[in-house]
Amino acid sequence: MGCLALLQVMPARAAGNLSWEQWQTVPGVFDVTGSMPDGTLLVATEKGLVGLRPNTGALFPARSDLPVPDPGVENYVAYSSGLAVAGAGCSFPTPALYAIRTSPPSVLRVDLVTGSSSTLAPIAGVDTLNGIAFDRSGRFGNRLLVIGPHSGQTVVDAVDCNGRVSLVTDSAPRMEGGMEVAPPTFGAFGGDLIAPDEYSGALLAVTPEGTTQIVTHNNLPSGGDIGAESAGFVPPGFSKGGAAYLADRATANNAHVGTDTLLRLTADQLLAAGVAEGDLLVANEGAGTTVAIRCAADGSCTEVLRIGQASDAAHIEGHLLLVATTPAPSPSPL
């Protein structure tokens, strides 16, 4: 499984005058996910999990025994979809957080009410894990998707709420980082898993059948610790308010040393610049320059906006999280 097809793309660039705001200092930040029913975001750091109130920017400790990763390890996280899995007889519980462990390769589940963590599933046939995302469109049966390298290619697995692992493909091209499943509105790639390759700048689409296509290239600098890293889709309701968030991680001995900052752009800024609900945003690991991409049913894709870097020093990790209008504050399960 896992053939690669090349599709024609239409790079119609529109230079934007936006740049990411260095919004909140978060020591050791490497990923952000959510939001919870009360609007709280969950921020993964090298010291553990913290909660963040987007209305105020306030940070607070999250009750969680999620293991603290080794320095430099990228244990990406994803907030529970809460969706039922077809044929599994269960739903993903919520509020819960899911995280990849790189060694041994496995998926952890964290109950955000009790704070307890457990192994949902060990992942065999990979050297490590380097990506995680929930299917919320249904084409993968609402399962949790994880990826990892093996023998020079990428393995894509789907995990259900009972911890049962199903192979999607073991021969996808190189990919890693903040991947997401496309909404049905994303043209020919609706419902596919979209994942970046930092070495080529390619954005790849993996179907539930295991075939792989190149969506487009982001036409930005590429290479290790430089190229395409973080992807996210503009959600429904974003036109009524919200924001985009991105982790800028301090990384010693690197050309992009990072700033330990959570970056932000508001919905008003993005919409005024031409971004629309359903668009794909992809940020480069080095400096954080970001493109917005829109795809049509015929497979053609257009770059509709380019967002400036946060700083030359920025070192982006994890997912590019876009959240529609934050609900009114209510008691948090954290």
Rg, Å, rounded = 18 Å
The chain-level mean pLDDT equals 90
Spatial sequence of strands, sheet with the most strands = 1-21-20-19-18
Number of helices: 1
What portion of residues belong to β-strands? 35-45%
Spatial gap, N to C terminus: 42 Å
Provide a compact summary of the structure:
With 334 residues, the protein is mainly beta. It has one helix spanning 267-273; strands spanning 4-6, 15-19, 21-25, 29-33, 41-45, 48-52, 59-61, 77-79, 84-85, 90-91, 96-102, 105-111, 117-122, 131-134, 144-150, 153-159, 165-172, 180-181, 193-197, 202-206, 212-217, 228-233, 242-248, 261-266, 280-284, 290-295, 301-308, 316-324.
Describe this structure as you would to a colleague.
With 334 residues, the chain is mostly beta strands. It contains 1 helix and 28 strands. The strands form 7 sheets. Strands 1-21-20-19-18 form a 5-stranded mixed beta sheet, with no helix packed on it. A 5-stranded mixed beta sheet has the order 2-27-26-25-22, covered by helices on one side. Strand 12 (105-111) and strand 13 (117-122) form a beta hairpin.
How is this fold's topology laid out?
Layout lengths: L3 E3 L8 E5 L1 E5 L3 E5 L7 E5 L2 E5 L6 E3 L15 E3 L4 E2 L4 E2 L4 E7 L2 E7 L5 E6 L8 E4 L9 E7 L2 E7 L5 E8 L7 E2 L11 E5 L4 E5 L5 E6 L10 E6 L8 E7 L12 E6 H7 L6 E5 L5 E6 L5 E8 L7 E9 L10
Parallel strand pairs: 1-21, 2-27
Antiparallel strand pairs: 3-24, 4-5, 5-6, 6-7, 8-11, 9-10, 11-12, 12-13, 14-15, 15-16, 16-17, 18-19, 19-20, 20-21, 22-25, 23-24, 23-28, 25-26, 26-27
Question: Which features does this protein show?
Answer:
45% strand, mainly beta, five-stranded mixed sheet, 334 residues, disordered N terminus, globular, single chain
